[in-house]
Design goal:
Elements lengths: L1 E2 L12 E4 L9 H14 L7 H7 L4 H9 L3 H15 L10 H10 L3 E9 H11 L7 E5 L10 H7 L10 E5 L2 H10 L2 E5 L15 E3 L2 H16 L4
Parallel strand pairs: 2-3, 2-5, 3-4, 5-6, 6-7
Antiparallel strand pairs: 1-7
């Protein structure tokens, strides 16, 4: 079922859909939690619960770590990246049904891209490991654009190969308010996929559309395609 906080179902079929990666297409929380607590311990900071990690791990490292570690943030980043490099591929787990959704959307001739705050090097390795690279026309990670989410810069970079401008014909699908803020900053349609960790998180940046699962999202796009094909009365 589609829920729109603005009270209207989508009228335009998306020509392009950009996806967040972590916890939108793959289950990354256990790996992220382990790596973040590893660097917390190394830097003499208290460990965090998984819930705290889920609520705090939103920004890219270059935006988030200076806030946590101050002028030692680059040291912390090196420790974190070394830990992620050691474990991220062995812990990589696609979320149920996501591959089928991506293939169905690709079959509908929708341009698909990724915009993630995961370091681009790691992001592309994970996409390759799953064999999904051919499904995406662009894969943009942290550090690839001049600024990271929620800036509009990675959105414009991801859309460049598509020829589709940022706007109402582009859906940005994610699981956090940072994704919805990025959608708003770029003028795209913010789409929440799955159940939010906290409803309060979306108080400032509410999604335009919410889908309970990947099958509903895919069927919605399919329905919009058929609606556009119907002759007007």
């Amino acid at each position: 079922m589609i829920f729109s906080p603005f009270g209207a179902a989508p009228r335009r079929r998306p020509r392009a859909i950009l996806f967040d990666w972590d916890n939108t297409l793959v289950d990354s929380w256990p790996m992220i939690h382990e790596a973040r607590n590893f660097v917390m311990a190394a830097m003499g900071h208290p460990l965090r619960s998984l819930t705290d990690t889920k609520l705090s791990a939103r920004l890219s490292l270059r935006d988030d770590f200076p806030r946590i570690f101050g002028n030692r943030w680059e040291e912390a980043r090196t420790i974190y990246l070394d830990k992620v490099r050691a474990i991220h591929l062995e812990r990589l787990t696609p979320l149920p049904g996501r591959e089928a959704m991506l293939r169905a959307l690709a079959d509908q001739d929708v341009f698909l891209g990724i915009v993630s705050n995961k370091v681009g090097e790691f992001l592309r390795r994970e996409v390759d490991r799953l064999g999904w690279h051919h499904l995406f026309g662009s894969i943009v990670g942290a550090g690839d654009a001049a600024a990271d989410k929620p800036s509009c810069e990675p959105v414009h970079l991801a859309l460049a190969p598509s020829g589709v401008p940022a706007g109402e014909e582009v859906w940005f699908v994610g699981d956090t308010a940072t994704d919805m803020e990025c959608a708003r900053n770029s003028g795209c349609v913010g789409v929440l996929l799955g159940d939010p960790i906290s409803d309060a998180e979306f108080a400032r940046f509410a999604p335009h559309l919410c889908f309970a699962d990947e099958a509903t999202l895919s069927r919605s796009v399919e329905g919009l395609r058929f609606d556009m094909a119907r002759p007007s009365s």
